[in-house]
Design goal:
Helices cover 0% and strands 33% of the residues. By secondary structure, it is mostly beta strands. The chain has one domain. Strands 2, 4, 6, 8, 9, 11, 12, 14, 15, 17, 23 and 25 form a 12-stranded parallel beta sheet that branches. A 10-stranded mixed beta sheet has the order 24-18-16-13-10-7-5-3-1-26, with no helix packed on it. A two-stranded antiparallel ribbon has the order 19-22. It starts with a strand and ends with a strand.
């Protein structure tokens, strides 16, 4: 409905509207990279349709005071879908916390609410995102790695959020399979209120489900990684969970510093990543119920023969830390985001008219 391209002269703002669910297949709002300044979206209400409520093709921007509603329950469409296709994100250190000195090196979502999503987001294709002071009402969080994604998420920060889960025994529980499904890259999860995902309908779900899908999936640029080996013999897989950019000297389990996307139209070699572990601390339950899973060998695109398992690639106290230990040297970025000054803080005042946008009627 709205296509917004970054403007080099100022921050385009869009606010004060509702998009009602309909039968169209398009996205609600598209954030498009233009080499300009961060786009600002605030004070909105989007009911989930058949496309993404917000599609994001850039690694900067701020969303606040918005509601995303997928009632009765969305298994596929996303509230915010991050696909910046940012190859450079894997060739430089992270901008986590106060390392983002301008506030325009990550995509920020704050003081918003999400309702009834298996995955309220998909952090993908080099995405760097920060989620803070939000409400996730029966709403999970998803990512992509180098499996059916090509570039894989770079990282996310998730803190000071509140999760709500309602568990029943009469078949009416939302199928909350996880709070987080992480397929690659690194992350931090701290100081959140996250109830256990346990009900008679769906007992014993993981809070944080991590996987190296390429081990058993015959898809993407590194299909069937480590096939014919076991025990993590080909550790690490390119851009797997716990990898980022710290030294720039990483090599995969094949002894290679890069992998190829040439057959997918990307001519440049892609860095495989080096150790940048994920951290979880200070949450309402400590440690979180974190574990690993496999894609499985019975899917239509499963790998044949002998395959390795995620448990040998994603290892506690090496690739992730789950307990009371904060990420060394980390300080959260300034809150509220400084770019919110001049926009609405929930009162409906100080709204700047949008520019650099177009609309489509479906």
């Amino acid at each position: 409905m709205f296509d917004i391209t970054e403007d080099s002269t100022g921050h385009t703002q869009l606010s004060g509207f509702k998009i009602q669910a309909g039968s169209g297949k398009g996205n609600g709002v598209n954030f498009k990279a233009g080499g300009g300044k961060a786009i600002l979206l605030h004070d909105c209400w989007i009911e989930q349709g058949n496309g993404d409520s917000v599609w994001v093709g850039t690694n900067r921007g701020v969303v606040w005071n918005c509601s995303f509603d997928a009632t009765p329950y969305s298994m596929a469409p996303l509230a915010i879908h991050l696909q910046p296709y940012d190859e450079a994100a894997w060739n430089k250190p992270s901008f986590m916390g106060m390392n983002d000195t301008t506030g325009q090196n990550n995509f920020y979502v704050e003081n918003s609410d999400f309702h009834a999503y298996l995955n309220s987001t998909d952090n993908d294709e080099g995405a760097r995102s920060v989620w803070r002071y939000n409400l996730f009402n029966n709403a999970g969080f998803g990512t992509h790695g180098v499996d059916t994604g090509l570039i894989g998420q770079r990282y996310f920060e998730y803190y000071n959020n509140v999760g709500v889960f309602n568990g029943y025994a009469n078949g009416t529980t939302f199928n909350m399979t996880w709070w987080f499904f992480v397929r690659g890259g690194t992350f931090i999860i701290h100081d959140n209120i996250l109830p256990a995902l346990n009900s008679t309908d769906y007992p014993g779900k993981l809070d944080v489900n991590m996987t190296e899908m390429a081990l058993q999936r015959n898809a993407g640029p590194i299909p069937c990684w480590g096939s014919g080996t076991s025990g993590g013999a080909r550790y690490h897989a390119p851009r797997q969970v716990g990898m980022g950019y710290v030294t720039g000297a990483g090599k995969s389990g094949l002894g290679l510093a890069t992998y190829s996307l040439a057959s997918f139209g990307y001519p440049n070699p892609e860095y495989v990543g080096d150790s940048e572990p994920a951290y979880m601390w200070g949450n309402s339950r400590q440690p979180l119920n974190a574990g690993v899973s496999d894609y499985g060998t019975t899917q239509s695109d499963s790998c044949g023969g002998n395959t390795d398992s995620s448990v040998n690639y994603i290892v506690a106290n090496r690739d992730y830390f789950n307990g009371s230990t904060p990420k060394p040297g980390y300080t959260p970025y300034t809150y509220p985001h400084p770019l919110r000054q001049g926009g609405s803080t929930g009162t409906g005042a100080n709204v700047t008219p949008p520019s650099s946008l177009s609309t489509t009627v479906q």
